[in-house]
Amino acid sequence: MITISVCMIVRNEQATIARCLDSVRSAVDEIVIVDTGSTDATLEIIGAYTDKMIHFPWIDDFAAARNESFRHASCDYILWLDADDVMAPEDAEALRELKQRLDLSVDSVTMPYLLSFDEQGNAVQSLRRNRLVKRARQFRWIGCVHEYLEVSGNILHSGIAVRHQPVERPGRSGRNLSIYERKLASDQPFTPRDRYYYANELKDHGRWEKAAEQYELFLSEGLGWEEDCIQACGKLADCYHELRQPDRFADSALRSFRYGAPRAEMCCRLGYHFLEGGRLDAAVFWYGTAAQLERPASRWAILNEACWTWLPHLQLCVCYDRLGEYARAYEHNKQALAYLPEDPRMLANQAYLEGRLKSVIPAKKD
Fold first, then answer.
1. Which candidate among 9, 71, 75, 97 keeps its CA 20 to 30 Å from the CA of 211?
2. Is domain 175-260 given the CATH code 1.25.40.10 in the classification?
3. How confident is the model at residue 366, as a pLDDT?
4. pLDDT surpasses 60 at 365
5. Domain Glycosyltransferase 2-like spans what residues (predicted)?
C-alpha cells in the first residue's frame, strides 16, 4: 500500500482549515503545511493536526510556496489541496481504496475539481487537475499566480473529486490582480498563461474593457493552450456583453469554433444573442444545437454543466412559447425538469403551459 502526504500552503485560513483537514485526515499518512504569514488562529488550529509546519516568507509567488511544501513531504505520493477545498466522505473513502491498489508505476492521478454548485448541491462547473503525484518524480510548480504543476509520465484519471467551497475573506479579492500588476509595472515578462489569467482577474473585478483588451491580446498571440483559448473566447464574449457590444459578443462566441468542435456554452451564448435580438428562429437553432451536442472527448475540458443539461431546454421552452408552439415548449420544459425536478421556474412553466395547451385543445365530447 502506498503512503500519502497532503501538502498545503496557507495564510489566515482559520475559517476553513479545520474543515479541509478533517475531510482528508483519515485518508493520508502525513500533513505538511507551509504558512506564509498567518496572523489569525490558523497556526493554533493546524497544531492539532500536525507538527510539520514550515514558515515561509511570502514573495508574491504561489509556485515557490507550493514547491517548498513539496520539499518537506516524505511519503510515496503527494496530495495537494487548498484550505478552502473539501473531500466528501465518499471521495475520501475512494482515496483510501486507491491507496490499497495504486501501482507505483503511476506518476500522477488526476481528479475532478468541482468549482461551483447549484441549490441542490449538484456540481455546475468543474475541471480536472493533477492532484496526487509521485514524490520521487520531483514535479515542480510553475507560475507566480494561478500556478500549475508540470507533470509527465504515466497518468491515471480517477473519479475521486475535490470540492472547492470558499468563504468570504476580506482582503483577498484583489490579491492576485495586484501581483500581476506589480509584475507588469516591473517589466517582468508575461507568459501566455499569465496573460490569460490576468484577463480573468480583470474580468472578475468588473474591469470589462481592460479584460477584453487582454483577452484579445492573448488570442492574437496564438500561443495559448487550446482549452484556455476556448475559455477566453467565452469570457471575451461576456465582457462585450457587459460593454453593450452585441455583435462583438456573438463574434467572440463564434471565434471559439477555431479551436475545436462547438461547445454548448458557446451555442447558448449565441442563442441568447439572437433571443435578445428577437430572432427566435436563430435562437431556436443555437439552443437546439447546444441540446444535442456530445460532450468533448478531452478530459481537460472545462464545462458549465447547465449548458450541457437543462439550460438549452429551458431556453427552447421560452422560444417556443413566444412562437406560440406550446406543445414544443412544454416538451422542452419537461426535459429541463428531468435534470432539476424541483426547480420553481420550471414547475411554474409546467403549470402555465398546461393551461395554454388546455385553451388551444378542444375538450373531448362525451
1. 9
2. yes
3. 45
4. no
5. 5-105
